[in-house]
């Protein structure tokens, strides 16, 4: 197993609405300040300070991150690798009968949960933490969720589009070609394209998803300039990056750099 989970802090003083966010990894977030809204045509869910939101992989939402009422939106986020979720189900079979979360779920961040969540973040962000400790701390958060009646579905076999996204994710700026990606999977370019087409995907769509979703995370979790983020995500043209980002998420990247 690689990293068992990813720890992020999303922070902004700018109210923004993100069109159609696709959740790529099972995730749990803790709203530290401000308010998160998850919106659908049929309604929505509101998570103010002190609430925990749980998002299963594959869910799609319009997301509003609102600095009000504290003046700054801050959320800590843990995203769990499929291998860790699979390990959880092997290790804690007593939760097999609990229906997996659909769409989203929420709960209050009591002191016990905050303590477990904070320990997991500290372990994942420390270079001194062993792999075993990182897995243990992340599993502890999954166990606490399960005891509250919230479990993620077993991941099953990864589709080809997800395999491509996971391959290119660590290096979105690289010169990825169909041939290079196919070679990484020890298959031919035509076979890879056919397998992706069966899922309604293409290599270019997967690359675009990874690059723009990585850019969104960097805009929300770092102080990098927009031009630097564009370069890190494989865009040589600042204007082309801004246009693609706006088309995908509904606002220009500069909006998050007041």
Question: How would you describe what is shown here?
Answer:
The chain is an alpha+beta fold and 258 residues long. 41% of the residues lie in helices and 23% in strands. The protein contains 9 helices and 9 strands. It has helices at 82-91, 111-125, 131-147, 160-168, 178-184, 189-198, 203-221, 226-232, 238-249, and strands at 5-12, 16-22, 26-33, 35-40, 43-48, 51-55, 60-66, 73-80, 105-108. The strands form 2 sheets. Strands 1-8-3-6-9 form a 5-stranded antiparallel β-sheet. Strands 2-7-4-5 form a 4-stranded antiparallel β-sheet, with no helix packed on it. A hairpin with a 2-residue loop joins β4 (35-40) and β5. α4 (160-168) packs across α7 and α5 (178-184) packs across α6. It is globular, with a radius of gyration of 19 Å. The model has no long low-confidence stretch (mean pLDDT 95). Keywords: DNA-binding, Transcription, Transcription regulation. This is Helix-turn-helix transcriptional regulator. Residues 162-258 form the HTH araC/xylS-type domain.
